[in-house]
Amino acid sequence: MKRTLFIFLMLIQLPVALAESAFETVVAKIKPSVVGIGVSDPLGSPRNVLQGTGFAVGDGTLIVTNFHVVEKALDPEAYQRRVVFIGVGESPKVSPAEIVKTDPGHDLAILKIKDRVPPLTLAKDAYLPDGRDVAFTGFPIGAVLGLYPATHKGMIAALTPVVIPSVNAQQLSIQMMKRLKEPFMVYQMDATAYPGNSGSPVYDMNSGEVVALINKVFVKESKEAALSSPSGISYSIPVKYLNALLAEL
């Protein structure tokens, strides 16, 4: 009887152990493709500033991130340059980057670097169903102690329309009015992301295919509260919009 019970328990635990082992393998393959997006200034203090997360696609020289990560113009009176941080640890490789394509409406940007980073595979355009387990890897609190990518699990909670609100009617532009009439769809995720996760790849936990990009976090109180008291609600841009942007290159 005891032997039978032991075998039964082992059979129950085996699929769980295999799934955990498979996910660990997926994460190990994802991490080398995740990079930091930032600005380098040889005369600044600090010299390098991490602004968000990105990941490689295509031939490995194309880096995807959020538009809002690279939206701010460089200081023309300084020696600033836009860069991609590659590798892990206190001294990542700094690779100069050029913005080659943007889609502000869907909060997407594509950068080009001379170095090659292992590219990730993008999923097809079909939306994921509610309840699908996913994961994302990035730099949730920046690079205070160095470049160390962190992985979080989550779930697709809903496919929901998104619009950019304005303070009052006078600030409604033609583009924003169109967005109100034709909002695009984003994933609301039951997952805890942080400001530094902007641009992080959201991927299938089994295949590692990228299904979306983290682009914003629901903040309950203040910006500081996003770190001390996260809401656990994050949003991501479905990969179909990235596929369309890459097709324009």
UniProtKB/TrEMBL annotation:
<dbReference type="Pfam" id="PF13365">
    <property type="entry name" value="Trypsin_2"/>
</dbReference>
<dbReference type="InterPro" id="IPR009003">
    <property type="entry name" value="Peptidase_S1_PA"/>
</dbReference>
<feature type="signal peptide">
    <location>
        <begin position="1"/>
        <end position="19"/>
    </location>
</feature>
<keyword id="KW-0732">Signal</keyword>
<protein>
    <recommendedName>
        <fullName>Serine protease</fullName>
    </recommendedName>
</protein>
<dbReference type="InterPro" id="IPR043504">
    <property type="entry name" value="Peptidase_S1_PA_chymotrypsin"/>
</dbReference>
